[in-house]
């Protein structure tokens, strides 16, 4: 049967979570409170606006809409300083092998990311041209766990949702894939991603045998 893959970006293709964290942490510090790596887990897969809401809740800080807008710009400016320095070396282990396997087997793949910076990041790590379709934070109105981002991805691939396989590192992303009736593959901790159909520690663990079983 014909199938397609849809990949999340942050935490699946590249480890940009560390840059998001540094930028959010600086923002929290500038507002007078600390922000831990553990708290940062709650921000993974979550949109920029929603992330700020969660952060401000941690700090017990209430701000005007105007101030929030300027903080969002500031945060993204700092985040982009890290992004501009990215190179293909930051592609996570196993990603290139998997993409090559898909290309060799004529299986199309799309990106399904909450990030508005996704196209830029893919350009920086020189993967942009390999994707048949790119759906990012600029294209969606409903954030994960809403399935919108993946449903648009399936449409762009010309694939039925049930024939799509989603690769995700965030709980919200797995929930979005399941809500879209797609096959969900979690990358990370089995306990955290227990709602996924399959979970692997990292992309190197996705073997050609597993893939062949999945596509046949
Ligand atoms: C997701 C990340 O992919 O994109 C989140 O996991 C991030 O941490 C979100 O907040 C939005 O990203 P951006 O680049 O538009 O701020
Ligand atoms: Mg992610």
TrEMBL record:
Binding site for Mg(2+): 8, 10, 168-169
GO biological process, alphabetically ordered: carbohydrate metabolic process
A molecular function GO annotation: sugar-phosphatase activity
Binding-site list for substrate: 8-10, 24, 43-48, 51, 75, 113-117, 144
Essential cofactor(s): Mg(2+)
Database matches in InterPro entries: B-phosphoglucomutase_hydrolase, Beta-PGM, HAD-like_sf, HAD-like_SPP, HAD-SF_hydro_IA, HAD_2, HAD_sf, PGP-like_dom2
UniProt key word Magnesium: yes
Note accompanying the cofactor annotation: Binds 2 magnesium ions per subunit.
Keywords linked to the UniProt accession: Magnesium, Metal-binding
Site, Important for catalytic activity and assists the phosphoryl transfer reaction to Asp8 by balancing charge and orienting the reacting groups: residue positions: 113, 144
Active-site residues from the entry: 8 (proton donor/acceptor), 10 (proton donor/acceptor)
Transmembrane segments: none
Family, per entry: Belongs to the HAD-like hydrolase superfamily. CbbY/CbbZ/Gph/YieH family.
NCBIfam families registered for this protein in UniProt: bPGM, HAD-SF-IA-v3, PGMB-YQAB-SF
Name used for this protein in its record: Beta-phosphoglucomutase
Organism classification: Bacteria, Pseudomonadati, Bacteroidota, Flavobacteriia, Flavobacteriales
């Amino acid at each position: 049967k014909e199938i397609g893959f849809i990949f999340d970006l942050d935490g699946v293709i590249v480890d940009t979570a560390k840059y998001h964290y540094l930028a959010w942490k600086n923002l929290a510090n500038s507002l007078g409170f600390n922000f831990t790596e553990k708290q940062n887990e709650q921000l993974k897969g979550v949109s920029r606006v929603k992330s700020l809401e969660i952060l401000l809740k941690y700090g017990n800080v209430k701000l005007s809409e105007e101030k929030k807008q300027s903080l969002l710009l500031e945060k993204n400016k700092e985040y982009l300083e890290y992004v501009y320095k990215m190179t293909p070396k930051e592609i996570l282990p196993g990603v290139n092998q998997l993409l090559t396997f898909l290309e060799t087997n004529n299986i199309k793949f799309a990106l399904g990311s909450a990030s508005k910076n996704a196209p830029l990041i893919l350009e920086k790590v020189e993967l942009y041209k390999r994707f048949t379709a790119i759906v990012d934070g600029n294209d969606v109105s409903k954030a994960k766990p809403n399935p919108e981002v993946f449903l648009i991805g399936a449409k762009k691939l010309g694939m039925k949702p049930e024939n799509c396989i989603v690769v995700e590192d965030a709980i919200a992303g797995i929930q979005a894939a399941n809500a879209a009736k797609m096959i969900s593959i979690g990358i990370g901790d089995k306990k955290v991603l227990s709602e996924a159909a399959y979970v692997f520690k990292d992309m190197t663990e996705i073997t050609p045998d597993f893939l062949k079983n999945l596509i046949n």
